[in-house]
Structures are given as C-alpha cells and as structure tokens.
UniProtKB/TrEMBL annotation, chain A:
It holds the Pfam family BPD_transp_1. One of its GO terms (cellular component) is plasma membrane. It is a multi-pass membrane protein. Residues 108-298 form the ABC transmembrane type-1 domain. CDD domains: TM_PBP2. Keywords: Cell membrane, Membrane, Transmembrane, Transmembrane helix, Transport. PANTHER family: ABC TRANSPORTER PERMEASE PROTEIN, MALTOSE TRANSPORT SYSTEM PERMEASE-RELATED. It is found in: Cell membrane. Belongs to the binding-protein-dependent transport system permease family. This is Carbohydrate ABC transporter membrane protein 2, CUT1 family. The chain crosses the membrane at residues 16-37, 112-132, 144-165, 177-195, 224-245, 277-298.
UniProtKB/TrEMBL annotation, chain B:
The lineage of its organism: Bacteria, Pseudomonadati, Pseudomonadota, Alphaproteobacteria, Rhodobacterales. It comes from Albimonas donghaensis. Keywords: Membrane, Transmembrane, Transmembrane helix, Transport. Belongs to the binding-protein-dependent transport system permease family. Gene3D superfamilies: MalF N-terminal region-like (1.20.58.370), MetI-like (1.10.3720.10). GO terms for cellular component: plasma membrane. The chain crosses the membrane at residues 28-51, 96-115, 127-147, 178-203, 224-246, 287-306. This is Carbohydrate ABC transporter membrane protein 1, CUT1 family. The keyword Cell membrane does not apply. The keyword ATP-binding does not apply. It is a multi-pass membrane protein.
Amino acid sequence: MSGYSITEPSRGQKRLAGALVILYAVITLLPLLWIVATGFKSPSDAISYPPKLVFEPTMEGYVNLFTTRTRVTPETLAELPPPDTWYDAIVRKYDMVIAGPSRYGERFLNSVIIGFGSTFLSVFLGTIAAYAFSRFKVPLKDDLLFFILSTRMMPPIAVAIPIFLMYRELGLNDTHLGMIFLYTAVNLSLSVWLLKGFIDEIPIEYEEAALIDGYTRFQAFRKVVLPQAATGIASTAIFCLIFAWNEYAFAVLLTSGTAQTAPPFIPTIIGIGGQDWPAVAAGATLFLAPVLVFTILLRKHLLRGITFGAVRK
Amino acid sequence: MSETAMARAARATPPSAARRIRGLSDRAIAWIFVAPTIFLLLAVNIFPLIWTVRLSFTNFRANRPNAEVSWIGLRNYTRILTDDDIWLTMQATAHFLFWTIALQVLIGFALAWLINRKFRHSDMWTTIIVLPMMLSPAVVGNFWTFLYQPQIGLFNYAIAFLTGADPTSFSMIGEVALAPWAIVIVDTWMWTPFVMLICLAGLRSIPDTIYEAAECDRASKWRQFWTLTVPMVLPFLMLAVLFRGIENFKMFDLVVQLTGGGPGNTTTLTSIDLKREAFEKWRTGYASAYAVILFVTVFGLASIYVKALNKVKER
C-alpha cells in the first residue's frame, strides 16, 4: 500500500501489536530452546533446581545418545590405557567405558529411508493422478477426489488393526517396505490435493501449444507441465516428508526393531533412574532440526500445505 | 480428418474435449495415471476398512490366531454403547476437543489480528511462531513431560515464578484435576499457529476498500470489527476448526507420550482407549466395533459441519 490510508494502522498500534506478537513468539519458542539447551547439559545440570539458564556446555548428552556404556570398577579403569578419544574421556569420568554404538543411528537411518522412500512414491503417484484429475475428464471425479481426502479422516489406530493383521499375513510387519507403502498411502491424499491445485494453476495453453508442435501427451506432461510444477512438487514433497518423519502411531504399532523409526525410539532412551534427559534432548534436537530448516524453506507454501490446498492466500 | 485439422480443432475446443493427437488416448492416460493411487488407497484403506467391519461382528482375538472365531452379531456394539467407561473416555475426548479448539481459536485469531497490523518483520515472527506445529508430536510430547516435572521442570518453575506458588506443590501430569489441562496446554501450544495462519489468510482476503467505505459511513472500529471483520473471516475460521476437530478427534501421539492416558483414565482419549483394547488386551473384534463407531462419528460430525460451512460461505 502506498501513501496515507485511513485503514493503515497507526505507528503506535503497530508497535504494540509487534510487541505482543514477539512476546508470544518468545514464550512459544522457550520449550524448543530448552530442548536444545538440555542436550548440552550434564545430567546433574539438567535436573537442577532452580532450572539452570547458564551452564557449562558438555557433549555428554550426545555421547550417551550414540553409545551404550558399561560400568567398570575404579581398579579396572585405572588399569586401562589412557582414553583414545574425547568421548572415551567423557564416559570414563562416570566410571564407565563405551561398550558399543547405541541404536539411535539405526533408528535415524530408518526414518530417513522410510521418509524419503514414501515421499518419493507418494509424490510420484500424486503428481500423475493430480495431472489426470486436473486435465482430463475422469468419471466420478469429484467422488474420487473426496474419497481420496476422506482416507485422511480415519484415526490411525482404527486403520492399524486390520493393517497389522494384513501385514502379519504378508510378512510386512516391522519392514521398511511395509512402512513405505503405508506412509505412501496416507500421504497420497495430501499430495493429490496439493498437486492438483498447483497443476490447475499452470495455464493449459502451454500444453496445447506443445501438442500442436507435435508432442505426445506424455512428452507434453514431462517437458511442459513438470518443469512448471517443480516448485509445487518440491513443496508437496517436503510436506510428505515431514508427515512421514513425524508419524508415531503406525510406527509404534507396526515396528519394533529393524524398521523402527526415531519417534517411537527417542522416548525410550533411558539412563539411571528414568529418562536420560540430556540424551533424549540431544536425540530430539538432531531429529527436529531438519524439520525446522524445511519449515523455513516452505514458509511461502505453508498455509496451502496444512489445509490440503483449501486456502491458497 | 487430417493432422492439421485435428490440431486446429484441439486449439478451438476446451481442454476436456481435446482429442488424442498421437500415442495413447487421453482417456487411457487418465486411467493409467489415476489407477495406481486408487489401487493403493483401496488396498491400504478400503480393504482394511471392510475387514474391520467384518471383524466387528466376531469375537476374534489377534493374539490367538488359531482359536475358533464365532459370529456374535451386534454384541460388540451393544457392549460398547452401554459401557460406562467408554462414555468417560468420550467425555475426556469432548473436554479435550472443546478446550483446545476454544483456546486455539481465541489465541490464534488474536495473533492473526495483531500480525495483520503489518508491523516490521511481521513475516519473520510469523514463521517463528509456526515452528512448533511442524514438529513430531511424540518427540515433543515426551519432552514436555520433562518441562512438567514438579520442581525441576521449566513449566512448574515459570508458573511458580509468576504466581508465587511452590513449584513442588503441583504435578501437571500426575494429578487427576490437572492432567486434562496439561494435554490441552501442550496441544494449544503446538496448534495455535495453525488457526493463526488460516485466520491471517482470511484477514488478508478482506479488501481495504470495504473498511474505507465503512469509515466514510462513520462506522466505529468496534462495529467494523463485528460487522465486517468477523463475518468475512468466519468461513476461514470454520475451516480451521474443522481441521483441528478431525485431528484432535484422532489424537494419539502427543497425549500418549504426555500422560499415557493417566492418571487413572482422566486423559484416556478414544484413540488411546482403542489402542489398549486392540493392542494390549487384544480384543480385536471388540476394538474393531469400537473403530467402526469412531469412523461413523467422525464422518457424521464432519459432514454435518461441512454443510454448515458451505452455508456460511454462500452468505
């Protein structure tokens, strides 16, 4: 807006509004900052009273996150050669030695495999289906689109009962493939709806021109529509990835070992006498950080993604 | 018809009537493109749904696959609908739904209204506020149990600091009176930005000229707010409530990590109860009937709501 307008808020109003919003933002960020900070605290600092804002940062949480340790007697410890690495040194302060890697790395990798696998599949299937819904006369189009959307309304636990039985018959329980199929199916509603919106916005004249130039439908789709829809496809992919990354209900019911993702695993990280909070916080920090980055990248399409394309701004 | 005539016809006709030029027909391509999606959804959603309905009439138990299964008709359904505990679960769910939605609408709308004052860097702060809702509810919920610990928890400390209460005197997730509010607080923290974003889109969709006209008519700011702003944002707000309603009716991950349904059954929402029946007590048939009842409830409520939403939109 340019120049003076009677609807433009006054300077004082803007300042007050800004101050209130920033206050809310700071309060809402506190739990997240606390996760990051706790990851760098020693176990005793993490549970001190009053909660410590200033503390000496340590990597203990991260070391505990990635290793399993065994307690040894001070005599055995004294006989050991000096620690080779900085993390050996940290562990030995507590009369312990590193016994091996923890499961966190595997679980994180599972999240990556299942996340990317299902994202690729749901975006691929979603793009071609959305193209068809956007450009062709599909019989019962509206009913099919509503059906696709309605699959998202079912509580995951309710769907999980028969999926569990079906996967048990097929040997897909606790497998990467089973989880990839499942997350693909769950994400399809989002990817079809979002991508249909994006493809609807590409002027149909581009394809018509390509068709007249002698392209086949497939060529026109690949060489004209896909490049035009690239931003839409990328943001849809990020939304699908975030969903698969964060999903917990199916993961906790259908995986327990080889294919378990990080969300059911992180809350099970325990130390002496309950949860090892610095290690949990370290695990959470590493797990949440990629999503924070993606959210910032996505900010322009956020609204569209969370409303399945219903609100476009 | 020659190739060029076809091309000319294609140019002249609307897209739906555009005919094939070379290669596969459009109709064939449409089917090839849509079929995998429909097939996968049938396999992973509809087939299991039908299976659930079938199981709901039996006494099948998934942990005893070799035991004899018998048809027991509607007995699962009558048992669920007459079970007092299920009604308590429904009450807990209703409490959770009502308060999360009420708080998120109030705070979300207020925030959107403030952000729409267009102060400096408002876009940056909007992005920051949005962050919690993108995170894994299970991981974040688990960490909130740490924030909620008496004495050492940041939440208790902050409340004690502000009110002067003793931070060891209350446990948000351990006390029957507080636990239902503990889950409302975390859900509101996570999802207020969702309502805020949608409200903001609504506020930004209102053209300035309408307010200018109202100013000319000397309508007070208060009156402008109630007769212009609110009605124009209402369809957006209702959409946000629809999404939050469906999501929170399904709520599982956040609450199961926060309280596990306890203490007692005070925060046992329907999904948590269903999980216990299906995967801890292994009463698969009974749980299937429970699941069917939940489906019907969600679809029923959602479709009534969507009708109301469409009416508001038409106005």
